[in-house]
Amino acid sequence: MPVEPTAPVTPAASPVELEQTEGPAGAAFSRRGFLRVAGAAGLTSVAVSLAACQSATTPAWSFGAPATPGAPAATAAAPSAAATIAPSVAPSASAAPSVDPNIPAGWTSHDVAARVVVRRYIGNLAPALKGIYGDAAFAKLVDILGAGDNYPELGLKPSFVQVPQVVLNDLLAPLKATVDGDVKVFNLTIDEFDQKIDEMKAPVKALGYNAQWPGPTIRVTEGDKVRVVFKNNLKETTGVHFHGVEFADFFQDGVPFVTQKPITPGETYTYEFTASRPGSLMYHSHHNATDQVGRGLLGAFIVDPKKPAADDKYDREYVWISNDSLGGFTINGHGFPAVVPVLAAMGETVRVRFMNEGTMMHPWHLHGYKMKVVARDGYDLGSASFYCDTLGVNPGERYDVNIVADRPGVWAFHCHILPHVEGADGMFGMVSTLLVVPEKAHVDAIVAALLA
Ligand SMILES: [Cu+2]
């Protein structure tokens, strides 16, 4: 069964602060108040609006050894290191020392840029990982990230909390229904708004339900009577299709000039139907859709089963909606490094609901783990469920997978069409990670640290 969505989590009232410790390689680790451990159990679902999220100020602590006196400052804060760092010497078999002191020997500007992106992704979460994976693993992390640079991103929140996100963890914050008799009523607006794909990119002119991309998740239970009321605040017409619903009344299907007239600017339009079958469904524009869905008119419509199947049990849940038009290759309206990781504690089962609202297929590959595919287009696969580590999801398709967290680590989780994920400046677009930690309290602590 799904976890019960909860109100946004706030940090524990009595934070437990990390004490000053001596880290690997002599690195001093401290940041009072950095890691607040959420003492209460039950932090299984976190929804957060990060509109108020502020970039952290320069930290008063050090992740690594101080930068070498006289050495040039790290250039990691630049939007594109590759664009600001002079080209290094051409790679050669002799691995001649770089002429640019910002580029380590044997590296090129690509390597520096690629590291910057990962540094932005991890941000000030890096020190919080110290107590989680053990000293040896942490020492490797320190080395891989080049913590000795004391680089600027260590003082910043991770990229995925520097831009407004509907989701931090688990399910998108579901939209609250009002009740009219035996009908669940949802009211939404259709809006133009500015979407930041990444904190270092200029915002794009997006469209969104309730000015969000993805729109708020609409969640009901099989058999519910549902009424969804849309107020069109756009300067253009639209229509809303609930994708995967088996309508009794085809006039609710949301296709302008087939089942309805388009919804004009300023107009309010109502769809009403019974959620006759369970599953991971979607809602999106079905009018000028190449453009409108491409700009963000999309969201998840989840119908929970009345009687869950055996595979329909999980501890955490993530909606994963891909798109590939406005803003490039995105997961839930953002591109790496501004993509929220999938968090899991050892022993937990994580449900990921892949939904493809884009125009091309994306094969999602999870490193080091298998995914059990339990439903396609919301239909339970039952005995036909199968395992894979790469799952192609076509436009319009949804797949539900279960991942059982049985080994800690930071595991890459990305589209395997390589031009969708990596370029001259390192990783971008359709990249995320599965972050498996030993204890549930670690997940809670990470979440609390991010929210602090
Ligand atoms: Cu792709």
Shape: globular
Radius of gyration (Å): 23 Å
Amount of beta strand: 25-35%
Number of helices: 6
Quaternary structure annotation: single chain
Note the gap between the termini. 30 Å
Bound molecules: copper (II) ion
Pairing-aware structural class of the strands and helices? mainly beta
* Count of spatially separate domains: 3
Q: Give the helix level as a range of percent.
A: 10-25%
Average pLDDT score? 80
- Total E-strand runs: 25
Give a verbal description of the structure.
The chain is mostly beta strands. The chain folds into three domains: 21-161, no CATH class; 178-304, Immunoglobulin-like (Sandwich), CATH 2.60.40.420; 316-451, Sandwich (Immunoglobulin-like), CATH 2.60.40.420. The chain is 11% helix and 29% strand. The chain contains six helices and 25 strands. It has helices at 81-84, 109-122, 130-133, 135-145, 289-294, 440-451, and strands spanning 21-22, 28-29, 178-180, 183-195, 204-209, 215-221, 225-232, 240-243, 268-274, 279-285, 298-304, 316-323, 330-331, 342-345, 349-356, 362-366, 371-376, 379-380, 386-388, 390-393, 398-404, 409-415, 422-423, 426-427, 431-437. Strands 12, 13, 15, 17, 18, 19 and 21 form a seven-stranded mixed beta sheet that branches. The chain is globular and about 65 Å long. The two termini are 30 Å apart. Copper (II) ion binds next to loops.
